[in-house]
Amino acid sequence: MGEPAPGAGVPPVPEIDGAVPHSARIWNYWLGGKDNYPADRAAGDQFIAVYPQIVDIAKHSRTFLSRVVRYLAGEAGIRQFLDVGTGLPTVDNTHEVAQRVAPDARIVYVDNDPLVLAHARALLTGTRQGATDYIDADLRDPGRILAGAARTLDLDRPVGLMLLNILGHVDDYDEARAIVRRLLGGLPPGSHLVVADGTDVITGEAFRTAIDLWNRAGDTPYRLRTPELIGGFFAGLELLEPGVVPVSRWRAEPEPAGEPDDVDEFCAVGRKAS
Question: Residue 132: how many CB atoms within 10 A of its CB?
């Protein structure tokens, strides 16, 4: 088992209230994970009753993460990853996928959720050749994120910046774009940006209704955005093929049953050329 990066430290585990549904645990439940409580499963089932497609979205989102990290660590030669909005550890976390391809890969996870912090030690493992670290920081503080990442990553070398299902939590689109620009501004040419977030172009009103219910019931509101707005995060970058597409379609492997279904989470990958 690998060790945390030098200087890595995880604060004491906060107290967790299992009686109150929590978004990270609900997502874990949809993925088939075990880090959830009856309250989370009940809330997850209520969402499924309104919008059953959420389970497919969650699973396709996770397999997209695996595919894109394999691509970045393999064909693109990326050896450093900054994963912002980590969520709960589950199967095939970023460091696991990257280090299977490149054992010397270095990964920094970022989240500011006390529940994720409580599970962060499970993320601080990996190969002896590589390194992992965890930063307790908010997406809206790019300076803190970059300063913390520099403990483990060499920010003069290309980095894979992962922003999966996180920018939708920033209500103002211009603010979200500014956050992305500031993070990319601290990374060198050759770095890659990966974004995935929810849309409403496939299932329309059904997903909007479910998200409205989610936002009224929870403390982590989420905004659906169009594929065009998701594409806007890549202004000034070299957008890689196949462009802005559903996560189920981004360089998907052939399946015996044919092409995968489109889902209402779109993604893209872009390279910083200069």
Answer: 29
